[in-house]
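Fill in residues.
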Protein backbone atom coordinates (compact mmCIF):
# COMPACT_ATOMS: atom_id res chain seq x y z
CA UNK A 1 0.00 0.00 0.00
CA UNK A 2 1.74 3.13 -1.25
CA UNK A 3 0.83 6.43 0.38
CA UNK A 4 2.17 9.75 -0.86
CA UNK A 5 1.95 13.13 0.85
CA UNK A 6 2.06 16.24 -1.35
CA UNK A 7 3.37 18.26 1.58
CA UNK A 8 6.10 17.60 4.13
CA UNK A 9 4.93 17.08 7.74
CA UNK A 10 7.32 17.47 10.63
CA UNK A 11 9.60 14.52 11.34
CA UNK A 12 7.70 13.60 14.50
CA UNK A 13 4.51 13.08 12.46
CA UNK A 14 6.36 11.10 9.80
CA UNK A 15 7.83 8.77 12.42
CA UNK A 16 4.48 8.38 14.13
CA UNK A 17 2.79 7.29 10.89
CA UNK A 18 5.52 4.81 10.05
CA UNK A 19 5.42 3.35 13.56
CA UNK A 20 1.65 2.93 13.51
CA UNK A 21 1.52 1.50 9.97
CA UNK A 22 4.72 -0.48 9.31
CA UNK A 23 3.09 -2.25 6.36
CA UNK A 24 2.46 0.95 4.45
CA UNK A 25 5.02 2.56 2.16
CA UNK A 26 5.00 6.30 2.86
CA UNK A 27 6.58 8.89 0.58
CA UNK A 28 6.66 12.57 1.49
CA UNK A 29 7.11 15.42 -0.98
CA UNK A 30 7.34 19.17 -0.42
CA UNK A 31 4.98 19.86 -3.34
CA UNK A 32 2.93 18.01 -5.92
CA UNK A 33 5.44 18.61 -8.72
CA UNK A 34 8.03 16.64 -6.76
CA UNK A 35 5.64 13.68 -6.56
CA UNK A 36 5.11 13.25 -10.31
CA UNK A 37 7.07 10.00 -10.64
CA UNK A 38 5.37 8.47 -7.59
CA UNK A 39 1.82 9.24 -8.72
CA UNK A 40 1.20 6.18 -10.95
CA UNK A 41 1.76 3.73 -8.09
CA UNK A 42 0.07 5.72 -5.33
CA UNK A 43 -2.98 4.03 -3.79
CA UNK A 44 -3.52 6.89 -1.34
CA UNK A 45 -2.76 10.61 -1.70
CA UNK A 46 -2.71 12.95 1.29
CA UNK A 47 -3.03 16.58 0.25
CA UNK A 48 -3.87 20.02 1.62
CA UNK A 49 -6.56 20.10 -1.07
CA UNK A 50 -5.34 22.87 -3.36
CA UNK A 51 -2.72 21.19 -5.56
CA UNK A 52 -4.40 18.28 -7.38
CA UNK A 53 -5.56 18.70 -10.98
CA UNK A 54 -7.37 16.53 -13.53
CA UNK A 55 -3.98 15.54 -14.93
CA UNK A 56 -2.74 14.32 -11.56
CA UNK A 57 -5.86 12.21 -11.07
CA UNK A 58 -5.46 10.72 -14.55
CA UNK A 59 -1.79 10.00 -13.95
CA UNK A 60 -2.47 8.31 -10.59
CA UNK A 61 -3.56 5.00 -12.14
CA UNK A 62 -3.70 3.09 -8.83
CA UNK A 63 -5.38 5.81 -6.79
CA UNK A 64 -8.28 4.68 -4.59
CA UNK A 65 -8.45 7.26 -1.79
CA UNK A 66 -7.62 10.95 -1.33
CA UNK A 67 -7.30 12.36 2.18
CA UNK A 68 -7.59 16.16 2.34
CA UNK A 69 -6.05 17.52 5.54
CA UNK A 70 -8.31 20.58 5.54
CA UNK A 71 -12.04 21.22 5.42
CA UNK A 72 -12.09 23.28 2.20
CA UNK A 73 -12.64 21.29 -0.99
CA UNK A 74 -13.56 23.89 -3.60
CA UNK A 75 -10.30 23.42 -5.52
CA UNK A 76 -10.56 19.63 -5.77
CA UNK A 77 -10.96 18.19 -9.32
CA UNK A 78 -14.16 16.35 -8.46
CA UNK A 79 -15.23 15.54 -12.02
CA UNK A 80 -12.05 13.57 -12.67
CA UNK A 81 -12.33 11.99 -9.22
CA UNK A 82 -15.91 10.85 -9.85
CA UNK A 83 -14.99 9.27 -13.18
CA UNK A 84 -12.52 6.99 -11.40
CA UNK A 85 -14.79 6.42 -8.39
CA UNK A 86 -12.09 7.57 -5.97
CA UNK A 87 -12.94 7.88 -2.28
CA UNK A 88 -12.39 11.32 -0.75
CA UNK A 89 -12.26 12.20 2.94
CA UNK A 90 -11.34 15.45 4.65
CA UNK A 91 -10.45 16.85 8.06
CA UNK A 92 -13.85 18.34 8.79
CA UNK A 93 -14.20 19.18 12.47
CA UNK A 94 -10.56 19.90 13.29
CA UNK A 95 -11.09 23.63 12.80
CA UNK A 96 -13.93 24.10 15.22
CA UNK A 97 -11.87 24.90 18.32
CA UNK A 98 -9.40 27.41 16.84
CA UNK A 99 -11.94 29.07 14.56
CA UNK A 100 -14.53 29.43 17.31
CA UNK A 101 -11.94 30.92 19.66
CA UNK A 102 -10.79 33.25 16.89
CA UNK A 103 -14.37 34.40 16.29
CA UNK A 104 -15.05 35.07 19.96
CA UNK A 105 -11.74 36.92 20.09
CA UNK A 106 -12.86 39.26 17.31
CA UNK A 107 -16.23 39.80 18.94
CA UNK A 108 -14.58 40.68 22.25
CA UNK A 109 -12.06 42.87 20.45
CA UNK A 110 -14.92 44.86 18.98
CA UNK A 111 -17.08 44.98 22.11
CA UNK A 112 -14.18 46.13 24.28
CA UNK A 113 -12.68 48.37 21.57
CA UNK A 114 -9.28 46.72 21.99
CA UNK A 115 -8.04 48.06 18.65
CA UNK A 116 -8.60 51.61 19.87
CA UNK A 117 -7.09 50.77 23.26
CA UNK A 118 -3.93 49.50 21.57
CA UNK A 119 -3.70 52.62 19.41
CA UNK A 120 -4.06 54.83 22.51
CA UNK A 121 -1.33 52.88 24.25
CA UNK A 122 1.02 53.32 21.27
CA UNK A 123 0.31 57.06 21.23
CA UNK A 124 0.50 57.49 25.01
CA UNK A 125 -3.12 58.66 25.24
CA UNK A 126 -5.16 58.16 28.44
CA UNK A 127 -8.83 58.21 27.49
CA UNK A 128 -11.75 56.21 28.84
CA UNK A 129 -14.19 57.63 26.32
CA UNK A 130 -14.49 54.56 24.16
CA UNK A 131 -17.83 53.10 22.95
CA UNK A 132 -17.36 49.75 24.67
CA UNK A 133 -20.20 47.24 24.90
CA UNK A 134 -20.93 43.71 26.12
CA UNK A 135 -21.57 40.39 24.46
CA UNK A 136 -24.04 39.62 27.23
CA UNK A 137 -27.54 39.72 25.76
CA UNK A 138 -26.32 40.44 22.21
CA UNK A 139 -27.76 38.53 19.25
CA UNK A 140 -25.58 36.31 17.07
CA UNK A 141 -26.48 34.87 13.67
CA UNK A 142 -24.14 32.16 12.37
CA UNK A 143 -24.32 31.35 8.67
CA UNK A 144 -23.24 27.71 8.67
CA UNK A 145 -24.30 25.73 11.73
CA UNK A 146 -21.94 22.81 11.25
CA UNK A 147 -19.08 21.77 13.55
CA UNK A 148 -17.48 25.23 13.55
CA UNK A 149 -20.71 27.17 13.74
CA UNK A 150 -22.10 25.14 16.61
CA UNK A 151 -18.85 25.55 18.55
CA UNK A 152 -19.09 29.32 18.05
CA UNK A 153 -22.65 29.19 19.38
CA UNK A 154 -21.56 27.08 22.37
CA UNK A 155 -18.94 29.64 23.35
CA UNK A 156 -21.37 32.49 22.70
CA UNK A 157 -23.79 30.90 25.16
CA UNK A 158 -21.11 31.23 27.86
CA UNK A 159 -21.48 34.99 27.35
CA UNK A 160 -25.27 34.74 27.54
CA UNK A 161 -25.73 35.64 23.89
CA UNK A 162 -28.85 34.90 21.86
CA UNK A 163 -27.91 32.49 19.09
CA UNK A 164 -29.46 31.84 15.69
CA UNK A 165 -28.03 29.66 12.95
CA UNK A 166 -28.41 28.72 9.32
CA UNK A 167 -28.21 25.26 7.78
CA UNK A 168 -29.62 23.52 4.72
CA UNK A 169 -32.63 22.00 6.49
CA UNK A 170 -33.59 24.47 9.21
CA UNK A 171 -33.52 21.66 11.76
CA UNK A 172 -32.47 22.64 15.27
CA UNK A 173 -28.83 22.24 16.25
CA UNK A 174 -27.45 22.18 19.78
CA UNK A 175 -26.47 25.58 21.25
CA UNK A 176 -28.77 27.52 18.90
CA UNK A 177 -32.00 29.19 20.01
CA UNK A 178 -33.36 29.44 16.48
CA UNK A 179 -32.51 27.93 13.11
CA UNK A 180 -33.02 29.23 9.58
CA UNK A 181 -32.35 28.20 5.98
CA UNK A 182 -30.97 30.16 3.02
CA UNK A 183 -34.52 31.16 2.16
CA UNK A 184 -35.55 32.32 5.66
CA UNK A 185 -32.51 33.79 7.45
CA UNK A 186 -33.15 37.31 6.13
CA UNK A 187 -35.89 37.78 8.72
CA UNK A 188 -33.31 37.60 11.53
CA UNK A 189 -30.86 40.11 10.04
CA UNK A 190 -32.49 43.18 11.66
CA UNK A 191 -31.98 41.54 15.08
CA UNK A 192 -28.36 40.43 14.67
CA UNK A 193 -25.63 42.31 16.52
CA UNK A 194 -23.04 39.91 15.10
CA UNK A 195 -23.28 38.11 11.76
CA UNK A 196 -20.68 35.36 11.41
CA UNK A 197 -20.18 33.47 8.13
CA UNK A 198 -18.65 30.00 8.18
CA UNK A 199 -20.12 28.77 4.90
CA UNK A 200 -18.17 26.74 2.32
CA UNK A 201 -17.86 27.88 -1.27
CA UNK A 202 -20.58 26.17 -3.32
CA UNK A 203 -22.93 27.12 -6.13
CA UNK A 204 -25.59 27.75 -3.48
CA UNK A 205 -23.47 30.10 -1.36
CA UNK A 206 -21.51 32.14 -3.91
CA UNK A 207 -22.31 35.86 -3.58
CA UNK A 208 -25.46 35.21 -1.54
CA UNK A 209 -24.88 38.26 0.68
CA UNK A 210 -25.86 41.38 -1.21
CA UNK A 211 -26.44 45.07 -0.51
CA UNK A 212 -30.06 44.34 0.42
CA UNK A 213 -28.90 42.14 3.30
CA UNK A 214 -26.71 44.85 4.79
CA UNK A 215 -29.58 47.30 4.35
CA UNK A 216 -31.63 45.15 6.73
CA UNK A 217 -28.96 45.09 9.45
CA UNK A 218 -28.37 47.44 12.38
CA UNK A 219 -25.87 50.18 11.62
CA UNK A 220 -24.00 49.02 14.74
CA UNK A 221 -23.84 45.36 13.66
CA UNK A 222 -20.59 43.50 13.04
CA UNK A 223 -19.95 41.13 10.11
CA UNK A 224 -17.25 38.46 10.48
CA UNK A 225 -16.32 36.19 7.56
CA UNK A 226 -14.13 33.18 8.36
CA UNK A 227 -15.71 30.91 5.73
CA UNK A 228 -14.94 31.70 2.10
CA UNK A 229 -14.23 34.97 0.33
CA UNK A 230 -16.78 34.52 -2.45
CA UNK A 231 -19.75 34.71 -0.07
CA UNK A 232 -20.09 38.41 -0.85
CA UNK A 233 -18.67 40.67 -3.55
CA UNK A 234 -15.93 43.01 -2.38
CA UNK A 235 -17.75 46.05 -3.75
CA UNK A 236 -20.74 45.25 -1.54
CA UNK A 237 -18.55 45.18 1.57
CA UNK A 238 -16.83 48.44 0.70
CA UNK A 239 -20.15 50.16 0.11
CA UNK A 240 -21.55 48.82 3.41
CA UNK A 241 -18.76 50.38 5.47
CA UNK A 242 -18.40 53.59 3.47
CA UNK A 243 -22.11 54.34 3.78
CA UNK A 244 -22.15 53.32 7.47
CA UNK A 245 -24.70 50.56 6.91
CA UNK A 246 -22.79 48.40 9.37
CA UNK A 247 -20.60 49.02 12.40
CA UNK A 248 -17.54 47.00 11.43
CA UNK A 249 -16.36 44.15 9.20
CA UNK A 250 -13.73 41.54 10.08
CA UNK A 251 -12.41 39.52 7.14
CA UNK A 252 -10.16 36.47 7.38
CA UNK A 253 -10.95 35.11 3.89
CA UNK A 254 -10.83 36.69 0.45
CA UNK A 255 -11.55 35.88 -3.18
CA UNK A 256 -7.91 36.43 -4.01
CA UNK A 257 -5.28 35.29 -1.54
CA UNK A 258 -2.83 36.61 -0.56
CA UNK A 259 -4.71 39.88 -0.49
CA UNK A 260 -2.74 42.38 -2.66
CA UNK A 261 -0.89 45.03 -0.66
CA UNK A 262 -2.69 47.81 -2.56
CA UNK A 263 -6.16 46.40 -1.94
CA UNK A 264 -8.57 49.00 -0.45
CA UNK A 265 -9.52 46.63 2.39
CA UNK A 266 -6.17 47.29 4.05
CA UNK A 267 -6.79 51.01 4.50
CA UNK A 268 -10.54 51.04 5.00
CA UNK A 269 -11.18 52.09 8.59
CA UNK A 270 -14.35 50.03 8.87
CA UNK A 271 -12.66 46.78 7.79
CA UNK A 272 -10.16 44.70 9.73
CA UNK A 273 -8.07 42.20 7.73
CA UNK A 274 -6.44 39.00 8.98
CA UNK A 275 -4.47 36.66 6.64
CA UNK A 276 -6.70 33.56 6.62
CA UNK A 277 -5.33 32.30 9.92
CA UNK A 278 -8.46 31.60 11.97
CA UNK A 279 -7.85 27.84 11.83
CA UNK A 280 -4.08 27.84 12.26
CA UNK A 281 -2.60 26.75 15.56
CA UNK A 282 0.08 24.24 16.50
CA UNK A 283 -2.72 21.67 16.94
CA UNK A 284 -3.80 21.81 13.28
CA UNK A 285 -1.63 19.00 11.91
CA UNK A 286 -1.94 16.66 14.94
CA UNK A 287 -5.73 16.84 14.66
CA UNK A 288 -5.72 16.33 10.88
CA UNK A 289 -3.37 13.36 11.03
CA UNK A 290 -5.35 11.79 13.86
CA UNK A 291 -8.34 11.61 11.51
CA UNK A 292 -6.10 10.21 8.76
CA UNK A 293 -4.74 7.53 11.10
CA UNK A 294 -8.24 6.42 12.12
CA UNK A 295 -9.30 6.28 8.49
CA UNK A 296 -6.14 4.50 7.39
CA UNK A 297 -6.73 1.83 10.02
CA UNK A 298 -10.28 1.28 8.76
CA UNK A 299 -9.13 1.33 5.13
CA UNK A 300 -6.33 -1.17 5.83
CA UNK A 301 -8.86 -3.54 7.40
CA UNK A 302 -11.25 -3.23 4.44
CA UNK A 303 -13.81 -1.48 6.63
CA UNK A 304 -14.42 1.65 4.61
CA UNK A 305 -17.86 2.02 6.19
CA UNK A 306 -16.05 3.05 9.39
CA UNK A 307 -14.12 5.89 7.74
CA UNK A 308 -14.77 9.45 8.96
CA UNK A 309 -15.68 12.51 6.92
CA UNK A 310 -16.43 10.75 3.64
CA UNK A 311 -17.21 13.36 0.99
CA UNK A 312 -20.10 13.30 -1.45
CA UNK A 313 -18.15 13.99 -4.64
CA UNK A 314 -21.32 15.08 -6.44
CA UNK A 315 -22.08 17.81 -3.91
CA UNK A 316 -18.44 18.63 -3.14
CA UNK A 317 -18.78 18.42 0.65
Amino acid sequence: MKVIFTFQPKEEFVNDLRNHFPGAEFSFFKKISDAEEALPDAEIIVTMGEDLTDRHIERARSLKWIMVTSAGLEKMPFEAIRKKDILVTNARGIHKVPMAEFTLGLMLQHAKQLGSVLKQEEEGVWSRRLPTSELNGASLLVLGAGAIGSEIARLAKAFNMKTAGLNSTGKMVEHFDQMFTLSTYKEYLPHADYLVAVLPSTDDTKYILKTEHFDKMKDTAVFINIGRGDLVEESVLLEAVKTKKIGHIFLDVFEREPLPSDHPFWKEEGISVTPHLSSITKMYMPRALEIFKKNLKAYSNNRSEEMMNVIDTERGY
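The chain is about 30% helix and 15% strand.
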